[in-house]
Design brief:
Largest sheet: 2 strands, antiparallel
Structural class: mainly alpha
Order of helices and strands: HHHHHHHHHHHHHHEHHEEHEHHHHHHH
CATH class of the largest domain: Mainly Alpha
CATH topology of the largest domain: Sodium/glucose cotransporter
Strand content: under 5%
Helix content: 55-70%
Number of helices: 24
Oligomer: single chain
CATH architecture of the largest domain: Up-down Bundle
Mean pLDDT: 83
Number of domains: 2
Strand order of the largest sheet: 1-3
Shape: globular
Distance between the termini: 78 Å
């Protein structure tokens, strides 16, 4: 059976499962569409939350970023998992106790202002649309390779699938679809990691293989990888290179951005009791850890395998005449078929610049080292592997390692499961904000339940269209695009939720001013360096570390935006009238367990 046929079978079977679940669990009321009728158990909700959370950025892109940057990109792991601890302790139980459907609804009620609710909707839309673009980027990458179509065609196929099960099922259908998607994605991520760890280190567990011995050379695996990449003129894999300040700010932006993500928060509205919200967060961390503890091994082994392909002597450390693979072998050999397959997508490419029949792979910007000396002596034209998109590394790794066809096919299904599960959650958050907060909460308060349900489905369909169109021209790799969304959530939603729960003195004017100051400052900073947001123009400033303000990258600025939000909200609140007594009592009732005031000390 051909690889293409296997891909079709695995992807088709998974799609049939998702759509079947959506039809069976079709939402028939707004309570089912927004919150699954609050009937989801903590374990099921934890698994669905993990699938909602582990997006294309986690499955497809994160290990690719780790593969090419190494130690510095461990910030993704620390920030994203640390954010769940904040969410479980500081937000989830209190928001569930509040008992409403959406984040903007909490903001509007707590800050006694329809305007605050609308600003919350705007912030939610900006964050969620940015995030869903990263998912659609991952969908396009996966479809373009495994269904052998263009990236844009893959995007439209993915959009059609999300439309089928998200618009039909709402939160009820999406929840049980995400459980199935979690099972698919965790199997798809773990199986090839186990195979490759056994190949390279002899360890069954990839987590142990990362710190084990490279079998062919007898060296510690990470030491072997460090030697390999530095010999080729690249930076040491395990060293720290980026600004420590930026690393700290980026990690913090991911953490508080996680705690402020609307599509994750709304998952905690689906459980029966307040205590179940914390249990759901705990189970979600367990299910997330099954992938996140494997990701560093996947990234490092993917980097090793890519380099070993381009330098045949890498496995054993044999002396090489030059780091290259022959053009003839790329065109004809079975073990190089992966390169031909990915070249078709445009995400991998090479050029024989000096016509010697070899494709050299080394860092031609390096000024010292064996490769530089050899390149000068032999008159090499430079690095001829001209394009290696980070997002292909996890998907291509099983092919590079010559794993069985069924493993490659299940990885394809897993990549799509990760992207589509998160896209569905984001689209639900968007549709809820538009239909429940904007239409019912502001424009048409008397709309019927049937009309609101129809508005929710129409707004979700329009959101899918907008996300797909923007996904055709994303501002970066899937994980990079998602990181921008975390910065926006950190600067706008997280602070207002924290102040709304833990402060009785923050006023509606303070909350509105804080949200606007936080998200506008962050958007302006991102736009200055990325040049993509809202306007498809050019960036005003070159996106390099030398040009960043105090060395702070656009993805890290969300932490600064959050500080701006807090400070502005506090100062404005001090200058305006205190919240009404009933609002202060509402805050107290959210935080303090029912009946605690009746206890008498003796």
């Amino acid at each position: 059976m051909s690889q293409f046929t296997l891909n079709l079978l695995f992807i088709g079977a998974s799609f049939a499962l998702y759509i079947g679940i959506a039809i069976y669990c079709r939402a028939k009321s707004t309570a089912e569409f927004y919150a699954a009728n609050r009937g989801v158990s903590p374990v099921v909700n934890g698994m669905a939350t993990a699938a909602d959370w582990m997006s294309a950025a986690s499955f497809i892109s994160m290990a690719g970023l780790i593969a090419f940057t190494g130690y510095d990109n461990s910030t993704y792991l620390m920030g994203w998992t640390g954010g769940y601890v904040l969410l479980a302790l500081l937000l989830a139980p209190y928001l569930r106790k509040f008992g409403k459907f959406t984040v903007p609804e909490f903001i509007g009620d707590r800050f006694y202002s329809p305007t605050a609710r609308i600003i919350g909707v705007i912030c939610l839309l900006i964050v969620s649309i940015t995030y869903v673009i990263g998912q659609m980027t991952g969908v396009g990458v996966t479809f373009s390779r495994y269904l052998e179509v263009s990236n844009s065609t893959g995007l439209w196929i993915g959009a059609a699938l999300v439309f089928c099960y998200a618009v039909l099922g709402g939160m009820k259908g999406i929840t049980y679809t995400q459980v199935a998607q979690y099972v698919v994605l965790i199997i798809a991520y773990t199986i090839p990691a186990v195979f490759i760890s056994l190949q390279l280190t002899g360890n069954f567990l990839p987590q142990l293989g990362l710190f084990g011995t490279h079998e062919a050379s007898g060296m510690a695996f990470l030491a072997k990888l460090d030697m390999l990449v530095t010999d080729l003129g690249f930076r040491q894999y395990t060293a720290h290179h980026n600004s420590t300040l930026d690393m700290v700010l980026f990690t913090m932006a991911l953490m508080i951005g996680t705690a402020g993500l609307p599509h994750v928060i709304i998952r905690f509205f689906t459980v029966p009791k307040v205590s179940d919200a914390r249990k759901s967060a705990g189970w979600a961390l367990v299910f997330i850890a099954l992938l996140y503890t494997v990701a560093p091994a996947v990234g490092s082994m993917a980097r090793f395998n890519l380099t070993a392909t381009m330098w045949p002597g890498a496995q054993t450390g044999d002396t090489y005449s030059q780091p290259a693979v022959s053009l003839d072998s790329i065109q004809n050999d079975a073990d190089k078929a992966w390169m031909r397959n990915w070249q078709v997508t445009g995400l991998l490419n090479w050029e024989d610049k000096n016509g010697d029949g070899l494709i050299q792979y080394y860092n031609d910007a390096a000024t010292t080292g064996p490769v530089t000396e050899m390149a000068t002596a032999q008159g090499l034209a430079g690095n001829e592997l001209t394009t290696v998109n980070n997002d292909i590394m996890v998907l291509a790794n099983p092919e590079i390692a010559n794993l069985p066809g069924w493993v490659i096919a299940i990885v394809a299904a897993g990549g799509l499961a990760a992207a589509l599960s998160t896209a569905a959650g984001l689209l639900l958050a968007i549709s809820g904000a538009v239909s429940h907060d904007l239409i019912k909460g502001t424009l048409r308060p008397n709309i019927s339940e049937k009309g609101e349900l129809m508005a929710a489905r129409i707004s979700m369909a329009l959101s899918i269209l907008v996300a797909t169109l923007l996904g055709l021209n994303p501002p970066g790799f899937a994980a990079q695009t998602v990181a921008l969304a975390f910065g926006l959530a950190a600067s706008s939603i997280f602070p207002v939720l924290m102040m709304g729960i833990f402060s009785k003195t923050v006023t509606k004017e303070g909350a509105i001013a804080g949200m606007l100051a936080g998200i506008i400052s962050t958007l302006l900073y991102i736009f200055a360096y990325k040049g993509w947001f809202f306007i498809s123009g050019t960036n005003m400033l070159e996106d390099t570390a030398a040009n960043w303000l105090f060395g702070i990258s656009p993805a890290s600025f969300g932490t600064i935006g959050a500080l701006i939000n807090f400070v502005v909200a506090y100062l404005v609140s001090q200058a305006t009238e205190k919240p009404p007594v009933e609002v202060q009592e509402l805050v107290e009732s959210i935080r303090v367990p029912r009946g605690s005031g009746s206890a008498v000390m003796h």
